[in-house]
Amino acid sequence: MSTPIEGPTPFAPQTSPPVPIRAPSPNWSGYLGEGYTLRSWLTTHDHKRIAVLYMVAITVFFFVGGAAATMMRLELATPAGDLVSAETYNKLFTIHGVVMVWFFLIPSIPSVLGNFLVPLMIGAKDMAFPRLNLASWYIYVLGGLFTAWALIEGGVDTGWTFYTPYSTKFSDTNVVLVILGVFIVGFSSILTGLNIIVTTHKLRAPGLTWFRLPLFIWANYATSIILLLATPVLAMTLTLVALERMFGIGVFDPALGGDPLLFQHLFWFYSHPAVYIMILPAMGVASEIIPCFARRTVFGYRFMCYAILGIASIGFLVWGHHMFVSGQSMYAGIVFSMLSFLVAIPSAIKVFNWTATLYKGSILFTAPMLYALGFVGLFTIGGMTGLFLASLALDVTLTDTYFVIAHFHYIMVGGSVMAYLGAIHFWWPKISGRMYPEMLARIAALTIFFGFNMTFFPQYLLGWLGMPRRYHEYPPEFQLLNVFSSTGAAVLAVGYLLPLFYLGWSLFYGRRAPANPWGATGLEWQTDSPPPKHNFEAEPVVTRGPYEYDPVR
Amino acid sequence: MSGNVPWLPIAASDIAGRVDTLFYFMVVLTGTVAIAIFVVMIVFAVRYRAGSSADRSNPPPRKRWLELGWIFTPLAIFLGIFVWAAMVYAGFYGGAAGATTVFVVGKQWMWKVEHTNGRREINELHVALGEPVRLVLSTEDVIHSFYVPAFRIKQDAVPGRYTSIRFTPTREGEYWLHCAEYCGTDHARMGGKVVVMAPAAFARWLESGNPAQSLAAQGFELFRRKGCSGCHVNSTVHAPDLAGIFGRTIHLSDGRTLLADEAYLRDSILLPKRDVVAGYEPIMPSFQGQLSEGELNALITYLKENK
Amino acid sequence: MSTIQFDNPLERRAAASLGMWAFLATEVMFFGPLFMGYVHGRIAQHAAFAEGSHHMHIVLGTLNTAILLTSSFTMALAVHASQQGRSSFRTWLGLTALLGLAFLGIKGSEYWMEAGEVSKASGPVLKFYFLYFAMTGLHAVHLSIGVVLVGWLWRGAKLYGRDYYSPIEVAGLYWHFVDIVWVFLYPMFYLIERYAK
Fold first, then answer.
1. Per-residue pLDDT tens digits for A297-317
2. C116 part of contact set with chain B, CB < 8 Å
3. Measured between CB atoms, does C123 come within 8 Å of chain B?
4. Which residue of A86, A169, A255 is in closest CB contact with B188?
5. C132 CB burial (10 A radius; 0-12, 13-18, 19+)
6. Number of CB pairs < 8 Å for A and B?
7. A545: Cβ–Cβ under 8 A, 6 or more apart, which residues?
8. DSSP β-bridge partners for residue B157
9. Which side of chain A, N or C, has fewer Cβ within a 10 Å radius?
């Protein structure tokens, strides 16, 4: 099969000679060989090294959040609250939510792969503000330390949603500490977003016009705008909760004429767009992997761009659909319901276009492709069930039940985490300079896919049958489905541990990766694996659109 | 609980039937579309696997009519579902006339129910088969949510305000009652059952337990004891007469008009300076913190019945 | 400082400017929930909020408004002078920082006087004070950062001139933003309903 790089392109020579060794060590080359001390990593301004720092940090938090989930699923294997106490269970789901949302999902693709790939994909030498980039990692770590401190002090039991007045007046756990952690980590996201926006605007290679940008860049750009505009609202809202908790005066307390619903409006004004912070970059990843292994240009590129922008903008207007039974006015509910149906349209376009991209392709079922196809399937189910929740009358019975849990895990875990893992595999040769073991990776992808469905599909049924969320005890008739779910969680846990081991193994024993092992078209594949410190030997010049894979005969 | 079928939830209210029709319609619709997408994906995946001999000439990079088609077809279907769901939802709130009002107060971690004749119960709600009920919810501490899966109803109880929901039970039996909004340590244990009884049995149940006083009578006592009557009945103080106030249209001093419903009466007692009636001075003191939720419910029931 | 990612100084300057604009967009949203809290209170407890505005020290507030607007003017002159390559920008920067300090001093004395009144307030008036302290306090924090920033530029003035003035320009954007926030806070707390009835 011919790779597209053999066309008349102006890029630097594309053949994959033995990777040039720049480092004194025989093992590491490119940016990885620029220094081996801890200090060289902790003081780096190189976007690629910062991306690796992020990868390490969020992996730690992923397994912290995962451990909490494991405890919850063990508890839920029986109807009685026998493994952990109610207090402990409440702290477990709170910490699971806080850690997974703010310390794993939100920074996952933008901060790890966005950091690594944005300059490479647009032909830049680094991000626009390298020192700010490093600072944002330290801010992330600082936020993480505060959250860890709160955990050591005994945890927090408000749920990741911090609803008032429970969080302001009634909970006697470490609410302020956790809020401080989330507040700080928010600024890490904001600074990363700011960096991505300025980099995308100002540092594109000559000839790389907006409509020649890979969809991954579009997705991260749109995500960054949401990060910039939504995150500060959360930061201030949580600050108000903390102040009200500390001083007993605030804007959410009905005794002073305040309104707990004001908190919910402000919280969801951030937290609904936050869902798109998690899913848009995942869509960007799928849009890179699927054309590559289908050997086809992405179907309907322009509509894919518009869909990303559509999701990012309409996503700001649908927060009220979290509040259909909260006491907000019926008319507000009707408006938010309609807007929620509208935001589903661009997502539907994307699913159809990914499917159409397969048509007349030449499909290779590598591990990244399995993750990407799994992402499309699970995202489709998650999106379809989202329509149930957007329907007012159905939401009344389904909200705050396991139906909602299943829905957003299909989006965030089935969607975002699948895409994140697919991306890690797809760009692993570029990041590490090594190939991962393909067979093991495929087995892991399939294990995760089946484990995921086994865990979360029964939860749709539980929700429809009427099992409320955040219950550590439940009526006995729900046990069978819960046992299914817990068993699936065990399979899922194995699936998530596998890549940790074989990717770690491949760092030392994996086959050396050529510059472009997949025959992909992106600029990041036109430089060595791993790339040199400033990415390109010579600044690339772009003369064509993305995904121009040679037609297969 | 009585007669829960393993795979399908029982439907025991007028709302449940309408919700279920929509739900199962959605299951069939989205299921069909999802399966169609998966089948197409699998067919493409097999047919165009690398190395297969399938025809790959002229792959389209885009097809405008197709793309517009899969924008506007889903849009039309979505708007249809939206309208259907919104109409069913609006029905939850309308048609309150003729419904029996029952007050429900959430408190960590129990539901306190007050019938208008003064009969109280905790973590249980008894209702009569076929008689419309309107629940008026409030809470003494944090947000709770009154959730009866078999009725397909759920409504948050929010500090500082009344919320309400309406239903008509259509099937005798006992059904789970849960709290659906996380409210602290024993959230999972905050619940009990809803008992739907035949009307005659319900009437007997309501009269048993011998409540000392009806809610309205308790309210009248409070009306005197808390000093409301000092200003609002035959007084030199310039305060509006409250007889027959419920359901009236009220003209406020800033030109707005309001319907005097439970929420208005509640706000007038707790936040009297918020909505001042035209022609009166804002001299009434706030009763914030001086009345429990139960006392407020009694006082408002008295004002409703004081024609 | 490593600037290898930029092809030329112009690109670097444009990036710095865009970065600050993006940051200011974040800042606007950061103030957002406080403004929403204020709007909610102003509607739900308009009587208490009207009462609250009578407790404000209108003379000091107005004086501060004048000082801050003047400081924006001197800041604009500093940016302009640096673009023209005139060394007078240093004087304007110094003046800007001093005006900022004057504002903070007056604000502090206002807080000092108000501290006693707060202890007497109760109910929704307390909420008015809460928002007043939270919003003007957050503004004062921003202004303090601005003063430090401008003072720092003033100290290192040798570095800047016609060829490299983007730090001054970017600091100017920030300064004007902080000023504009005050332009909203002043009427919200001092003026609205103070003279009604």
1. 999 999 999 999 999 999 999
2. no
3. yes
4. A86
5. buried
6. 259
7. A211, A212, A297, A301
8. B144
9. C
Is any Cβ of chain B less than 8 angstroms from the Cβ of A325? yes
pTM of the model: 0.93
Q: Which amino acid is at A347?
A: S
How many CB atoms are closer than 10 A to CB B294?
A: 18
Q: Do B160 and A86 touch (CB under 8 A)?
A: no
Q: Encoding tokens for residue C80?
A: 């302009």
The Cα-based distances of B252 to B244, B276, C41, C48, C176 in angstroms read: 17, 6, 19, 17, 43
| Reported confidence tier of residue B253, pLDDT bands at 50, 70, 90 | confident
pLDDT digits (tens, 9 = 90+) for A156-208: 999 999 999 999 999 999 999 999 999 999 999 999 999 999 999 999 999 99
A neighbour chains, 3+ CB pairs within 8 Å: B, C
Q: Which residues of B touch A338 (CB under 8 A)?
A: 79, 82, 86
| DSSP conformation class of A434 | B
The alpha carbon dihedral of C99, C101, C105, C110 has a sign of positive
Q: Do A470 and B163 touch (CB under 8 A)?
A: no
Q: At what angle do helices A260-294 and A330-358 cross, to 10 degrees?
A: 10
**Beta carbons of C19 and A128 less than 8 Å apart:** yes
Q: Are C144 and C104 in contact (CB under 8 A)?
A: yes
Residue C150 near residue C103, CB atoms below 8 Å? no
The answer on pLDDT for B169 being more than 60 is: yes
Chain B (207-266) residues lying within 8 Å, Cβ to Cβ, of chain A: none
